[in-house]
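#struct-help
A.M.: can someone run this one for me? Single chain, 135 residues.
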Amino acid sequence: MENRYEEIVREVLDEIDSALKDAKGLKAHQRRIAFSLSLGCVNLIEKYLVKKNVLKSGVKINHLWFKKKLDNVKKLISNQIVCPVENIPNLDNLLKIICEIEKERNELAYGKIVSEDFLRKQINLFFDLKKEIEK
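D.P.: on it. Structure tokens below:
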């Protein structure tokens, strides 16, 4: 049986796949991609922290945290885990990728249409994050 994290990531991957295969191109999916990538990032990092047995029970990570500077993101995350952030392997790298995706979220979701290449770059960042987390 699929857990909540896997279910949400699967939905995000389905949306990405649908967007990549659509003859209308990625631009037709820009807003859905923005929301999906944001949701996917939060779920991937929560899944990672659960896998490391460090996420406090019942905790939810907020996508807005990733708009802050890395040190501030780490402080917010540190309040949600049971060990020092420094003890979590590869966390800085994961947070940097998420911050890069989240930095563009609102512009993609609410702003003007961007290039296919830019959307592809955001999608590739998400795939990089997923790959790093699933190592």
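A.M.: thanks! Helices lie at 4-21, 30-51, 70-78, 91-110, 116-133.
D.P.: also worth noting: The CA atoms of residues 22 and 36 lie 16 Å apart.
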